Amino acid sequence: MKKIVFVLLYALGFAYANQVDATLEVVKKFGNLPNILVQNTGSSYSERDLSQRIFKMLVADLKVTGHFIVQEAKEVVPSEMLVNFDEYRKNKIDLVAHIKAEKSSSGITARLQLYDANSGLVALSKEYKNTQQETYPFLAHKMAIDINAYIKAPSVDWMERMVILAYYTKPGESDIIMSDYTLTYKKEVVSGGLNIFPKWANAAQSAFYYTKYLDKPTLFRFDLMTGQDKKMFDSNGMLIASDVSGDGNKILVTMAPNEQPDVFMYDVVNGALKRLTKYNGIDVSGNFIDDEERVMFISDRLGYPNVFAIPTSGEVSGKVEQMVFHGRNNNAANAHGNYIVYSSRESSDEFSRNTFNLYLVSTKSDFIRRLSSNGVNQLPRFSKDGETIMYVKHEANQSALGIIRLNYNKTLLFPLQGGVIQSMDW
Known about the structure:
By secondary structure, the chain is mostly beta strands. It has two domains: 35-150, 3-Layer(aba) Sandwich (Rossmann fold), CATH 3.40.50; 158-425, Neuraminidase (6 Propeller). It contains four helices and 29 strands. The strands form seven sheets. The chain has a five-stranded mixed β-sheet, covered by helices on one side. Strand 11 (217-223) and strand 12 (229-234) form a beta hairpin. Helix 2 (45-65) crosses helix 4. The longest helix is centred in the N-terminal third of the chain and has 21 residues, at 45-65. The radius of gyration is 23 Å and the shape is globular.
């Protein structure tokens, strides 16, 4: 079997050439990371609370990007106050963001005024609206995306993507909620019974698949636009949707119709089910890779779980290629371009929870980068641009969504209160 070699991503992560070039735009324009001052200008009683929440979220978002030195004003600033560009330049502040928000019968409106102290001009003047007041985190996320785009830094569009996750509410039951990446906004969409393994059905995030346990595991498709909860098909043993093609027309599912789990590809258009693996053991968790010409999956073919790949065309269990050569229990993986992130068990304690760490490898070199150091770190998922990884962390009887900013040596955790995360997608 042809050996794949891996590349070490440096601590500051200059892994992708296009991202390095974009980051240099920030340095070239400001001479260093831009210093941004964020101020809340919502001074009236009706504006103060909402403006402060959006203000705090925007400050946090800008710090998460890794593209700014962020300062937050301690006091509310009157919106009519003149902007003293000379004073800001004297204090080496490059950008000033004024935030104001208000509620109305139709929802919420937030306003951003971004000033460029170096040019003495208004860089951005924009309104953000939503009909639901509890969705205010997304208005802050959109502001951060726009400010980030102004300095021509690598995109952080992933911030406004919705997260779909299942969490256990009590033994034998789990609900599915939608949230922003910080878990500040949360909305219940499926409840009652055991509802697990949600997976977005398309890039627009207008629908998702999930498994519900009825008399047997059953795959459903929930349409967020219409509220329709459509039964797709069921199977004996197990049934999990693990990936969806770019056009949304094919689903990779793990099924065990004869008690042996294998990876199948389901055609949403014509209802055809194609078996991709046939092995007298465990094959699970298929993911499309290489422009959907191959599928990466987890198998115990070596006597322990590891990462393999197989072509989507040709004979069942055609040429199988081992993708990871480090670790002795690699039970989850995701891919982006030449890079694979996977979870590997690193302890064998039968009386307490074992440690699972995340590793990043490349198909182009023989080095490896460890991304976590403690706890149970599982279900890693790349962002669309490959610069950020989201994962689930379990530690000290608490679950959290983890965010790893690969190019900035930055990891953040957002705990879920009152539940244990079963699985997620974003």
